[in-house]
Amino acid sequence: MEGNDVIDGISPRADTVGNSSAKVPVSIHDTEALMIGKERWDEVMRMKAAGQSVSAIARQTGFDRKTVRGCLRKREWAPYRRKALVETLLAVHQTWLAERAAQVNYSARILFLSRAMQ
Questions:
Q1: What is the pTM of this model?
Q2: In terms of DSSP H, where are the helices of the chain?
Q3: What domains lie within the chain, and their CATH numbers?
Q4: Do residues 12 and 1 touch, judged by C-beta distance below 8 A?
């Protein structure tokens, strides 16, 4: 099957286009994967100390040049930390939204209209 074939009126999904399936990250609250581990950060630092250019380090490690530059700017390695969530305008309605969304099959239009009627 080619990437843009349509079978039974249904076009292919993004996760099944071509011969390989896509790997979609799953977000789990309160967990963070290491963006660059300590060992890889040390490796980048050793390569720079050995006189290699940012482009050469990027080619050998498989990182983007901007990622390599970011590593080199830091004095010491630190794990990735997501910024704290900021209070949003919908936060005051969160309980209602969570309850009502399931009742209306997660339709944003119905949610909006039912909230506007209140």
A1: 0.45
A2: 38-49, 54-61, 65-73, 94-103, 108-117
A3: 35-75 (1.10.10), 90-118 (no CATH)
A4: yes
Question: At 10, which amino acid appears?
Answer: I
pLDDT tens digits, one per residue of 24-81? 444 444 444 447 888 999 999 999 999 999 999 999 999 999 999 999 999 898 887 8
Residue type, 53: S
Q: What is the DSSP letter of 75?
A: S
Asked if residue 108 has pLDDT above 50, the reply is yes
Residues, the chain = 118
List C-alpha distances in Å: 59 to 38, 40, 42, 44, 45.
Answer: 19, 14, 16, 11, 15
Query: Which burial class, exposed, middle or buried, applies to 44 when counting CB atoms under 10 A from its CB (0-12, 13-18, 19+)?
Result: buried
